[in-house]
Specification:
The complex is a heterodimer.
Chain A (H helix, E strand, L loop, with lengths): L4 H12 L2 H26 L4 H16 L2 H23 L10 H26 L3 H9 L4 H31 L11 H12 L2 H30 L10
Chain B lengths: L1 H11 L2 H27 L5 H14 L2 H17 L10 H27 L2 H9 L4 H31 L11 H11 L5 H31 L7
Classes of the chains: A mainly alpha, B mainly alpha.
Chain lengths: 237, 227
């Protein structure tokens, strides 16, 4: 038989069960990646030459290597590192206790942070310098003008890019089966090998990813629309 | 460290294959992208809706899943037409997948770059007596290309990084050789091997970045802004 619809329908709920894990990895890495990315951005903005060079190198390496390779490096680098640490300082850490989720989140956070630092820079630079001057001229402190004037505007500018990054990460999570984390793709692989029905199961998986992507695309569009409210053009009368 | 040096030639020997996959996918992807862009700019009925759905699907699903779909699905589909492609090289399936992925992204780039060139340019070209084709070829195309150039670097490096997935269907590119080596040595030097792999990818990305900057310098020549 060319296409076993029955098998596809039966495997749908099983593969769908991986969605929470996919979303958990995506959302957590976006948040952690934002924090680390902001740190990198602020270090870079310090204008210390060696710090800037170091941050640039980090961003360049992370952007210049495949996510899959990064995932493998974390997977093979963390255990010996942890082993050495626990031996030297007598910490009660066992390599075998590291959950697969930890590897996935570490790698994805590193990957996201590099792109995020660039995103933060472009979002902040999209706000005109005049906004800062205006805020300070009405007596706001630097922190106030950032919090009340600059950041809200920068955030709206950043939303489309954050959305793209989010969608990219959803797709990227299809790689985490390599570190034995069970999400949509891992479930699909197991089912496909078990029933020897590759097309059916991978089609199901792709439909699930597609659905997720479309949903989040709409969500981010709506979010942008809602937040852009403040920047509506003033009417003359 | 010793291992780091001794494995390097072995992995490095797969570099031509990785570069070949990258270039072939880029070229075929550019052709597909042009086709998709043309369909959408010209608003051809039926084809346009088809292209829109296909592009949405490609952009909304992981490259890995698409690779598996092409690898397992394509032979079965062409089987319906009485063709047997089961013995095709796995590299071909990888290139087909990466070309379609590229095509989906490039078509958007092409379309927006084409539409960013003001219509007045065509009007001006026609008014001085150029034919439709030559106004496109001499006036519109160079400007479109100049707009596209900064985006080119990103798409080349994206394709390069995508090719690292090809080992999952058994292609022995850089990543595939690394996997083989790690399997052969029972994972003793896995970390060093992957670091080597990432070094190679990174260096290619740096080279691509430099290349694009050079191209930009060359193509900026003709462009003088109003200011």
């Amino acid at each position: 038989m060319f296409f076993d619809l029955d098998f596809a329908l039966k495997s749908f709920p099983e593969v769908l069960g991986g969605v929470p894990m996919t979303l958990l990895v995506t959302a957590t890495s976006i948040l952690l990646g934002f924090a680390l990315g902001f740190l990198i951005y602020s270090l870079q903005a310090r204008k210390r030459r060696w710090l800037t060079a170091l941050c640039r190198l980090y961003v360049s390496v992370v952007r210049g290597t495949p996510l899959l390779v990064q995932l493998y490096i974390v997977y093979f680098a963390v255990p010996p590192l942890l082993h050495t640490l626990s031996q030297r300082y007598g910490l009660p850490l066992k390599v075998a206790d590291i959950p697969p989720l930890a590897y996935a989140l570490t790698a994805f956070t590193i990957n996201t942070s590099a792109y995020m630092s660039e995103l933060i820079r472009s979002a902040l630079s999209s706000v005109e310098a005049g906004q800062m001057e205006a805020a300070q001229s009405v007596g706001m402190s630097a922190w106030q003008s950032y919090r009340l004037i600059i950041l809200p505007q920068a955030f709206v500018e950043a939303i489309p890019n954050i959305g793209n990054m989010f969608l990219g990460l959803i797709k990227g999570t299809s790689l985490v089966y390599t570190v034995k984390l069970v999400e949509v793709m891992a479930r699909a692989k197991v089912l496909a090998a078990y029933g020897l029905r590759y097309i059916e199961v991978y089609l199901v998986a792709s439909l699930i990813y597609w659905g997720l992507s479309i949903c989040f695309e709409i969500l981010f569009k709506k979010l942008e629309q809602v937040l852009r409210v403040g920047s509506r053009k003033l009417k003359a009368i | 460290m010793e291992h780091f040096v001794s494995v390097f030639p072995y992995i490095f020997s797969a570099l031509p294959l990785t570069l070949f996959m990258m270039l072939a996918s880029l070229l075929a992807g550019a052709a597909l992208g042009l086709l998709f862009a043309l369909i959408r700019i010209r608003r051809l009925p039926v084809l346009r809706q088809g292209a829109t759905v296909l592009i949405s699907f490609i952009r909304g699903t992981p490259p890995l899943v698409q690779l598996f779909l092409v690898f397992y699905g394509l032979p079965k589909i062409v089987e319906l037409f009485g063709l047997n492609i089961n013995n095709w090289d796995k590299v071909v399936f990888s290139i087909i997948t990466f070309s379609f992925i590229g095509g989906a992204y490039y078509s958007e780039m092409f379309r927006s770059a084409y539409q960013a060139v003001p219509t007045a340019q065509t009007e001006a070209a026609l008014s001085v007596g150029l034919t439709g084709w030559s106004s496109f070829y001499h006036i519109i195309l160079p400007q479109t290309f100049a707009i596209l150039l900064p985006l080119l670097g990103n798409s080349v490096t994206n394709v390069l990084k995508e090719t690292s997935l090809a080992f999952t269907i058994g292609v022995s590119d850089i990543m595939g050789k690394a996997q083989l080596e790690i399997g052969r040595t029972y994972g003793v030097a896995a970390l060093q091997t992957y670091l080597e792999v990432s070094l190679i990818y990174w260096l290619i990305c740096l080279a691509v970045g430099k290349g694009v900057i050079l191209l930009e310098e060359i193509f900026k020549k003709g462009h003088t802004g109003l200011a």
